[in-house]
């Protein structure tokens, strides 16, 4: 199953999940936004629980989680909605 199908995290936890992934990578919101292909305000709104990522953004985030290996999977399991 592709990892993007595993990212079934609802608000407000999706923002906390994104923030934890970003911080694990040692990135600012601006740097994370550039990697994902969105604007800084978009990442800020995600992390503050005002909006949720699009399907395309979730795919990009899933790819980053994949690159983080076991650490990414641990964080994903922590926030995964059942």
Comma- or semicolon-separated keywords:
82 residues, mainly alpha, 434 Repressor (Amino-terminal Domain), globular
Description:
- The chain is an all-alpha fold.
- It has a single domain (3-79), classed as 434 Repressor (Amino-terminal Domain) (Orthogonal Bundle), CATH 1.10.260.40.
- Helices cover 62% and strands 0% of the residues.
- The chain is built from five helices and no strands.
- The chain has helices at 13-24, 29-36, 40-47, 55-67, 70-79.
Summarize the structure.
This protein has five helices and no strands.
Query: What is the CATH superfamily?
Result: lambda repressor-like DNA-binding domains
Fraction of residues in β-strands:
under 5%
> Which regions are unreliable across 5 or more consecutive residues at pLDDT < 50?
1-5
The third-level CATH topology is 434 Repressor (Amino-terminal Domain)
The structural class is mainly alpha
Q: Which descriptor suits the 3D outline?
A: globular
Query: In DSSP terms, counting alpha (H) and pi (I) runs of 4 or more, how many helices?
Result: 5
CATH architecture: Orthogonal Bundle
Distance between the termini: 16 Å
> What is the residue-averaged pLDDT?
89
- State the share of residues found in helices, binned by percent: 55-70%
- The CATH C-level class name: Mainly Alpha
| Annotation, overall tally of beta strands | 0
CA-atom Rg in angstroms: 11 Å
The overall number of domains is: 1
